[in-house]
């Protein structure tokens, strides 16, 4: 039970963190100029976005959950299980960012998720 | 407005940079931590020794640089590309690391891991066939 709860926190907060960071970057708009000074200013602006800090807080929670889980579960269980985050990320992108997932993208995400699990198990 | 083909090229280049910097960062951390060795205890003296060893290692600083560049490239590409496009594409790191492990560091890689690598390659190729941005016109 404890493992299931912490794994759920890990996957949900990791996905939430990634989606919040993606949302913060979308709010800033697209970069067109790739001069180093422009990129640095753009990245500096990103850290003034509230969503960026919400994302960082969630990613920190995910990291702490990962460390906690690794303290009692085997890494060969924990890392393949985190491959679930590709599927929750796809659902989050669709629900919260309004992205359109075609069957081809779903198939690709499913294969990547299974592949990551196998790499971690191997 | 940026032509779509140059937009797709820019997305591919940045995703490739995300994968290269992320893989390099992880590999440098791996080499650095292996050279430092395992922590033998949790006493304050042991932790102080580990802290000094970690932050005086050139490999660890190369790893930190790699991870900062990874983060910058990821943030830039997410400013226009779909999260659901970028996320699976970055899984290519799971392909690069076993390849470098096998052919550069001469580590053994199991059959199960190679099977995973093949699935990731097919999955990333499928995602790569879709539009990088489905939420606005580019």
How would you summarize the topology of this molecule?
The complex is a heterodimer of chains A (122) and B (138).
Chain A: H1 2-28, H2 36-46, H3 50-72, H4 75-81, H5 84-96, H6 103-121
Helix pairs in contact in A: 1-3, 1-5, 4-6, 5-6
Chain B: H1 4-36, H2 44-55, H3 58-78, H4 83-90, H5 93-103, H6 111-128
Summarize the structure.
Chain A contains 6 helices and no strands. Chain A has 122 residues and is mostly helical.
| Sheet having the most strands of chain B | none
Based on CA inertia axes, which overall geometry of chain A fits? globular
Q: How many helices of chain A?
A: 6
Alpha carbon gap, first and last residue of chain A: 26 Å
Oligomer: heterodimer
Describe the global form of chain B.
globular
Listing every helix as H and every strand as E from the N terminus to the C terminus, the arrangement of chain B reads: HHHHHH
The total of beta strands of chain A comes to: 0
Strand portion of chain B: under 5%
Give a verbal description of the structure:
By secondary structure, chain A is mainly α. Chain A has 6 helices and no strands. The mean pLDDT of chain A is 90. Chain B has 138 residues and is mainly α. In chain B, helix 1 (4-36) runs antiparallel to helix 3, helix 1 packs across helix 5 and helix 4 runs antiparallel to helix 6 (111-128). Chain B starts with a helix and ends in a 10-residue tail after the last helix. The mean pLDDT of chain B is 85. The chains are: A mainly alpha (122), B mainly alpha (138).
Which features characterize this protein?
heterodimer, A: 122 residues, mainly alpha, 6 helices, B: 138 residues
């Amino acid at each position: 039970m404890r493992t299931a709860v912490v794994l759920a926190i890990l996957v949900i907060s990791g996905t939430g963190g990634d989606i919040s960071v993606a949302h913060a970057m979308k709010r800033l708009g697209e970069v067109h100029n790739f001069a180093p000074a422009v990129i640095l200013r753009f990245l500096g602006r990103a850290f003034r976005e509230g969503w960026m800090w919400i994302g960082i807080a969630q990613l920190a929670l995910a990291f702490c959950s990962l460390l906690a889980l690794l303290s009692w579960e085997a890494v060969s269980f924990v890392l393949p299980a985190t491959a679930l985050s590709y599927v929750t990320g796809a659902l989050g992108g669709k629900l919260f960012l309004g992205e359109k997932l075609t069957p081809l993208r779903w198939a690709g995400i499913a294969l990547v998720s299974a592949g990551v699990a196998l790499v971690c198990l191997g | 407005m940026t032509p779509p083909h140059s937009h797709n090229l820019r997305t591919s280049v940045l995703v490739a940079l995300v994968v290269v910097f992320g893989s390099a960062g992880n590999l440098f951390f791996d080499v650095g931590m292996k050279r430092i060795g395992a922590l033998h205890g949790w006493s304050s003296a042991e932790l102080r020794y580990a802290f000094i060893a970690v932050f005086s290692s050139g490999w660890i600083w190369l790893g930190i640089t790699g991870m900062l560049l990874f983060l910058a490239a990821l943030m830039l590409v997410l400013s226009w590309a779909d999260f659901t496009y970028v996320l699976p594409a970055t899984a290519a790191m799971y392909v690069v690391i076993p390849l470098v492990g096998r052919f550069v560091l001469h580590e053994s890689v199991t059959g199960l891991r190679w099977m995973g690598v093949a699935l990731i390659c097919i999955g990333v190729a499928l995602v790569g066939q879709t539009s990088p941005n489905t939420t606005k016109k580019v």
